[in-house]
Amino acid sequence: MSLETITNPESLKKQINARRTFAIISHPDAGKTTLTEKLLLYGNAIHLAGSVRARRNQRSATSDWMKMEQERGISITSTVLQFPYKDHVVNLLDTPGHQDFSEDTYRTLTAADCAVMVLDAAKGVEEQTLKLFEVCRRRGIPVFTFINKMDRPAQDPLGLLDEVETVLKMQPVPMNWPIGDGDTFLGVYDRKTEDVHLYDRTAHNQTISPEYITTLDDSRIEAGLSDFQFEELHLNIGLMDELAEYDHEKFLAGEQTAVYFGSALTNFGVQLFLDDFIQMAPPPSAYPSDAGQIEPVSPGFSGFVFKIQANMDPRHRDSVAFLRICSGRFERNVQVKHPKTGKQLKLSRTYTFFADERAVVDEAYAGDIIGLPGNREFSIGDTISSNGNFSFNPIPRFAAEHYGRLINLDVGKQKQFLKGIHQLESEGAMQVLYETEATRRDPILAVVGVLQFEVVQARLENEYNVKTKLEPLPHQLSRWVEGPKEQIDQLPWRYGMMRTEDLDGRLVALFSSPHELSFYSEKYPDIHFLSIQ
């Protein structure tokens, strides 16, 4: 789509309505990163799909740019991938699949208009998927479901649909139906057109699979399935008239999820899903602020920072703030207001991203994600606007679950150590706490998952040349504390509870057990122990 200069409201609305901004969520190993690669492949954004396993003779996944991600085949940070597809502009937010980095996914979902939930066909709805789905539900964003790995032995498709409905409390609507599974997975039946799409595998599954559009009477189907599978296929397709019909309003309201069966690894069913997605996914919608709902077609440019990442390019040692545009049209060199500091800023260096690749962007629209490098005054949740004096609703922070005291092993590098700690905290890589009643001022790192400790230490060494030692703490959970000061001072801080404060000066209590939290919550009803800030 041409990004011609927009001079009237109708043209602005047309550009915004062409945007599709979404995040992919899943439990680890359900195939999220593989599906991301294949959507890029079918969107002509890449010509050869990478492998998440990063074998020596294979390319590492495009979206996994961090060294540790490429070595381990996991996604640690969220990545922005923008590409055009059939008169639309797709902004794909690839989120971490590993549960230890789920807070980054929570933040990224605030910048998405919908989500694609990837399920493993052999495992169904798993624990991490459920947690991330609940975030989508709280955000009120619609969810597509892609039941992946049909090229391996899978659960019964009707059983999978029943599990989605039972566990997620959302009506599943199958948009296609799998033909076989495992070694006999041949393709899918399109419920809308009643066509059958058969596929051939390609070498290493790295290029677009040859596709044959045919009918259920095609002899290749009967030849490729067992007698039982063939009879069951026709029986299930005959039952599809009794299953729920797709209702777009119910889908947008989160009452239904459109379900697709396929295999991201072998490319089976990916293009069918992508073609439906750009038609069914919602365009950018209004965002809540302290001045009311901000509509995407409002003429003034505005957005909020949902992610900060430093040293994406070690040669530049820069810090990039990722901004979700919420309204209007962005033009490079625009003068904007930063409500938190009250400063006027000129946005002259702005980029669009494709994993670690960046390109200068002169204009962008509501729904797009742009990068603002170099300005270290930005924090996660900050609002930026051209003509408004408002702030978008804050992005919540979640209480951590693991804690450790971080010790700098080279006191001569204390300045670099503190600089790195503050930068990583601003990115949301962890929360930094300081014990208020201790003589030692070593920072306490508070994280959602223990692998975050390893990432922080690795980045401090690689990016700031600082080696550290982590001393794990025995505490199991923490809460922000609010209430009458005299009652807070009466809490048994010296007998198990640790009294700390975060970098914003908010009081944080560390507890040894959930029982301890429950006991003091009941004993001091006027004190609020908050799990979300």
What's the quick description here?
The chain has 3 domains: 19-280, Rossmann fold (3-Layer(aba) Sandwich), CATH 3.40.50.300; 287-385, P-loop containing nucleotide triphosphate hydrolases (Rossmann fold), CATH 3.40.50.300; 402-530, Alpha-Beta Plaits (2-Layer Sandwich), CATH 3.30.70. The chain contains 14 helices and 31 strands.
Radius of gyration using CA atoms only: 25 Å
Q: Which percent bin holds the helix content?
A: 25-40%
Mean pLDDT: 87
In CATH, the homologous superfamily of the largest domain goes by the name P-loop containing nucleotide triphosphate hydrolases
Spatial strand sequence of the major β-sheet: 27-24-26-25-29-30-28-31
* Strand composition percent: 25-35%
CATH topology grouping of the largest domain: Rossmann fold
Overall geometry: globular
Oligomer: single chain
Structural description of this entry:
By secondary structure, the protein is of the alpha+beta class. It folds into 3 domains: 19-280, 3-Layer(aba) Sandwich (Rossmann fold), CATH 3.40.50.300; 287-385, Rossmann fold, CATH 3.40.50.300; 402-530, Peptide chain release factor 3, domain III (Alpha-Beta Plaits), CATH 3.30.70.3280. The strands form 8 sheets. Strands 27-24-26-25-29-30-28-31 form an 8-stranded antiparallel beta sheet. The chain has a 7-stranded mixed beta sheet with strand order 2-3-1-4-5-11-6, sandwiched between helices. Strand 19 and strand 20 (357-360) form a beta hairpin. It is globular, with a radius of gyration of 25 Å. Mean pLDDT is 87; it is low at 1-6, 51-65 and 73-77.
